[in-house]
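Help needed: design a sequence for this.
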């Protein structure tokens, strides 16, 4: 019994000493790793701030090799690859993160979101869609739904876009009514192109319900009535459009005049167009009134007023078309040709968001894909 007690008295201090020594060795190892890893990390960050992306990537790769378990280094490296357009390498980094069994739920959702962004930037919309859908119910749910909405609009999947926008609106994120109305208008035009009139009419009803003040559903509905041989119904729809969105009424001014002639409502249409012109002088409205009068805009008594109110090249071009003897034929033709050439670049619509210009009016900008970013007037009238 005495022999066992002596060994116990000797063994306890020895075991304590060995344990203390082992802990010190582990602590030194941890400290050394922490010194090495941040050094490479901050070196890469400094290079990135100095816009030396190639060297920054090399530094981050070195940091990842020294500490392969650090998720932040992987995220930094993957995002840097994406920014440089090296989408394949970015995908590999984020897929490697998702393949780790020790990754927490928060970091896994973050890696899934980063992977979806990689696929989106690479143009792999089907894979991006799958990744974004996998984020449903996660902290990235709202961001994923917004990204899906942009994805569906980019790929022209209007039905999915409308459903996604409606879900976002129900969740209380914001109002998407105008955007949803555009989606249904696109669906209506596609249905008309297929010859499915009832489906097109239903889509326009959904569009008007989504955004009662929107001009586009009324504009399209009126055009459908004209094609169906019901010009009077078209006039009613465009009249409602004028009340709801007066600034956009000039987009259908020419069609309004033609429908009035077909419906035998010239006098009433002249009153409407004249009132619209007095509220917002526009050359398109003058042309529509001239159509009702069986003349040209050059003969309009309001043309000089239009040129004075809005001294645009288009108005000058119309005025010069009325040669009254002050110009010789050659001088008039030369002046008209010069004005025509100068006016053409300005007779375009320009996106207020990205500056994209087009000869015809777009509800959705082909450049930045923004809705209602085109002011309803030519560049020269802004």
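Sure. Designed sequence:
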């Amino acid at each position: 019994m005495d022999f066992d007690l002596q060994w116990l008295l000797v063994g306890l201090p020895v075991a304590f000493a060995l344990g203390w020594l082992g802990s010190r060795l582990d602590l030194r190892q941890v400290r050394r790793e922490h010194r090495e890893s941040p050094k490479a990390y901050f070196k890469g960050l400094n290079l990135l701030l100095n816009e030396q992306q190639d060297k920054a990537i090399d530094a981050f790769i070195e940091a990842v090799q020294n500490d392969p378990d650090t998720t932040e280094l992987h995220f930094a490296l993957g995002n840097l690859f994406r920014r440089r357009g090296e989408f394949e390498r970015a995908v590999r980094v984020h897929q490697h993160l998702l393949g780790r069994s020790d990754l927490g739920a928060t970091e896994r959702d973050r890696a899934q979101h980063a992977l979806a962004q990689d696929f989106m930037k690479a143009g792999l919309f089907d894979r991006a869609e799958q990744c974004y859908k996998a984020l449903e119910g996660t902290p990235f749910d709202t961001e994923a739904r917004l990204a899906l909405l942009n994805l569906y609009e980019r790929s022209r999947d209007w039905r999915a876009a409308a459903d996604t926008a409606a879900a976002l609106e129900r969740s209380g994120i914001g109002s998407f009514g105008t955007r949803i109305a555009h989606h249904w208008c696109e669906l209506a035009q596609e249905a008309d192109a297929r010859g499915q009139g009832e489906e097109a009419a239903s889509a326009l009803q959904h569009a008007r319900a989504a955004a009662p003040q929107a001009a586009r559903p009324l504009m399209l509905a009126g055009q459908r009535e004209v094609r169906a041989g019901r010009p009077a119904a078209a006039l009613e729809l465009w009249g409602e459009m004028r009340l709801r969105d007066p600034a956009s009424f000039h987009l259908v001014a020419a069609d309004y005049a033609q429908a009035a002639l077909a419906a035998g409502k010239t006098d009433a249409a002249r009153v409407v167009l004249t009132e619209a012109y007095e509220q917002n002088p526009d050359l398109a409205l003058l042309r529509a009134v001239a159509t009702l009068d069986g003349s040209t805009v050059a003969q309009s008594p309001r043309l000089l007023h239009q040129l004075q109110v809005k001294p645009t090249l288009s108005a000058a071009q119309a005025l010069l078309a009325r040669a009254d003897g002050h110009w010789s034929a050659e001088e008039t033709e030369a002046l008209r040709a010069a004005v025509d050439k100068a006016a053409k670049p300005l007779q375009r619509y320009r996106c207020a968001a990205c500056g994209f210009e087009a000869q015809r009016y777009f509800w959705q900008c082909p450049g930045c894909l923004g809705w209602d970013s085109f002011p309803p007037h030519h560049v020269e009238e802004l």
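The chain has 18 helices and two strands.
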